[in-house]
Amino acid sequence: MLVREGLNLSLKRESENDPEKAYALLFGASGLLPAQPKMFFDNESKSVIRKMWDWWWRKSNIFADNTMKSDEWVLAGIRPQNHPQRRLLAAAKLFVGQKQSLLKKMSEIFNSSSNDYKRMIAEALKELAVNSSDYWRKHIILGSPVQNNTGKLIGKSRAVAILINIVIPFLVAEKLEHLLDTDFLSELPPEDSNTIVRRAARNLLGTDHNPHLIYNCALRQQGLIQIYYDFCMVDKTLCEDCLFSKALLS
Would the pTM of this model clear 0.70, i.e. be above it? Predict the structure, then answer.
């Protein structure tokens, strides 16, 4: 994990609360910042690398104990939209350069006596979405061919995943326990379907289950994920000796 102990504490200070400088520090600390541009990089890509190095070399000694090596990353099979180069920039924009911390914003949005859960969720998703800057709108990764529009750094589907898996659990741990109310949880938009949800649904409900009942409900998706990790992963008998299925039948 890149944000090792101490790195996140000094990032805002050493970047002067500037997201672009913060990105240069994260990119450098990740070990992914190229020492030299490749021959085929266009002039704009070379300029971006120079600017990042201009800031990284001044501060690199501060992060020496938290710097990764490039071979620590496993990048095979990663979709370009999910590449660490883009995710690190999204993190810099989310956590640096804001008047108010992200989690404080989330707390204020959801720490409300209002029951307008749809409005709260829409507002939170808007805060979590991150648009691409000029360079990254045209390049999917550093030095890649120019495209018309590479999309957002964090789009709606990724924002939904962050909200469900990080923000809500954190806020509940911070005593916003009203977020456990079923009326609220039932309003959460579903994540994109994934192999774990589909496998758990097949094991539990059979191959002919109604996908609309599962894939349009975040709460049910999360329940299936929990069942998968608690039971499906540890039972290799295709449900024959599964404690969960036995409990349902008893």
Answer: yes
